User: Fold this.
Amino acid sequence: MLTNEYLKRVYAEVEKRDGHEPEFLQAVREVFESLELVVDQHPEWEKAGLIERFVEPERVIEFRVPWVDDNGDVHVNRGYRVQYNSAIGPYKGGLRFHPSVNLSVIKFLGFEQVLKNSLTTLPMGGGKGGSDFDPKGKSDMEVMRFCQSFMTELYRHIGQFTDTPAGDIGVGGREVAYMYGQYKKIVDRFEGGVITGKGLTFGGSLARTQATGYGLCYYAAEALKHLKNDSFEGKVVVVSGSGNVAQYAAEKTTQLGGKVVAMSDSQGYVYDPNGIDLKKLFDIKQKRRARISVYADEVPGATYTEGCRNIWNVKCDIALPCASQNEMDADGAKALVEHGCIGVFEGANMPLTPEAIAVVQGAGLLYSPGKASNAGGVATSGLEMTQNSMRLSWSFEEVDEKLQGIMKNIFKACYDASVQCGRPGDLMVGANIAGFLKVAEAMMAQGIV
Assistant:
């Protein structure tokens, strides 16, 4: 519950104006509750209208995306780009292609992205975009035609010094390549830094594919080491989702000595007491683009259960929610607590509901918000931009080493901020405050803009 009068007033204004955007309101309220610990120390913020400006995107772009399917039928989807805050660098954030995409989802993701990018210490502002287009079940040609139509509008709003998108849910290497090809054709320039997640033959970075999942585990390992004197070694781990983030979180967990026993997709989850066979998982998801249920059909001893939310009933030591927003509710969190889980580290953006966070933190579990623990993806996108600007290509080991360093620094920034505001070990508060203070300082320095 908000008690600071300035924050209460601003939140009331946001609620009145954007009351139809639940995901956005949820993200704003979580950050405001953390800022209550520091706002009284900065009376200059209210005079400068800082919080009012911080919660309002600098620019919101919405457009139609017409495309033709393989049967010659015309379809029209909505496209979005929210350029949220450029105080510390050009807008940076992914594009999401999924039926659930709407303005509320894109605004919440953009708002979170501002703080996430700040935590990386790289010079990147925050933005987000996407469409309610669903690439699942579409042919390569249909996806190509959609991506080309999407970029035909988006190109005029982006650039390596303005706004640099990347991938997100539903946007992988295939989609990024189609969009970049169209951008290059329209502007008649090989502007590699305009979009990240590119293929290795045209400016992509080694380790970018693995970065979000790997970074999640590097952050979690750092938190376990410093706050629990523990590690992944010998731990049973549940990873929700089975997309890019989940796949490589599972791979790095295994490399660090943990055993992943359950993974999911939007229909249900698989449980393998012997540990998920990553070679089989990658074949099913990366090559065949099939449902997770296929894993149980082909791996002896594995079982499949309908209903992806039920995955948190699987007993584990560490939970890595890597699917989508609000995927874990209070019941799921209670199940983790009852089974002796010691830590929940978010790989997706805002995967825990506020009620779930309260349960997890109330029980004393380690908890990290996605804006901190899943920042490895955008951090490595920043490293890809650096390589593009320098006309260089770093080795996998070089990028991975830099990623580990960034994730360790993010943990330190979160922990140090939690100590300074009197909540030592509260990594959610630490992430919100550490990310915000850097942006706030830049905004104050640049005047009322």
